[in-house]
Design brief:
The structure is a single chain. The protein is an alpha+beta fold. It has helices at about 5-25, 185-190; strands at about 50-55, 65-70, 75, 90-100, 105-115, 130-135, 140, 145-155, 170-180. It has 2 helices and 9 strands.
Length: about 190
């Protein structure tokens, strides 16, 4: 065998190896490709939260005349809660949340806002009252179809409330806020 024949074999082998390496690196330049597709649709689930509230009825009821909401709707309030005097905070009710949605949720906060008074033509104003919510199980996860997020609602007659606030009916609204908790690592991964 001659030196030239050995060299040609080495050159041929080197070119072949280089070509195969190029095919591997560039993704199979000589491969034929094809594709197909499928169609589908997905529904984005929803959150639905309902507050079930029970006022602390320490005055007799039901009221003879239904209380009228500031938007003009009759409000089904079965009784009144006695609050006061200046500087005193009174528990006015308690409640829970019902998860009527598709995903787990948790109650993260709430507030009590004074909306109106029965006779606002006097010195007494809504600003003479304040409210708050106390969550009984902070961080509790409520599954779809479940109840949870128990809370108490409180009203305070502020220290600077004038004497003509006596006898007023205070209209308030309890707002409870719920949100979806952060997904777990397993929920963040694709589900098979």
């Amino acid at each position: 065998m001659s030196l030239r024949a050995t060299t040609m074999r080495k050159v041929f082998a080197g070119v072949t190896v280089t070509s195969l390496a190029g095919v591997a690196i560039f993704g199979g330049v000589f491969a034929w490709k094809t594709s197909d597709y499928a169609k589908g649709a997905a529904l984005v689930g929803k959150n639905s939260f309902e507050v079930r509230y029970a006022p602390n009825c320490n005055l007799p009821g039901p009221l003879e005349t239904p209380l009228i909401d500031t938007e003009g709707d009759a409000v089904p309030i079965p009784c009144l809660t006695l609050i006061g005097y200046n500087g005193v905070t009174t528990r006015v009710g308690k409640g829970v949340g019902a998860n009527n949605g598709n995903f787990k949720i948790q109650v993260v906060g709430g507030r009590v806002g004074v909306r109106a008074l029965s006779d606002e033509g006097r010195e007494c104003k809504p600003a003479h009252f304040s409210g708050q919510v106390r969550l009984l199980n902070p961080g509790e996860i409520i599954p779809p179809g479940g109840e949870g997020g128990a809370f108490y609602a409180f009203l305070n007659v502020n220290r600077d409330a004038p004497a003509d606030c006596q006898g007023e009916i205070v209209y308030y609204k309890v707002v409870i806020e719920a949100e979806n908790p952060q997904p777990t690592a397993a929920e963040a991964e694709p589900v098979e």
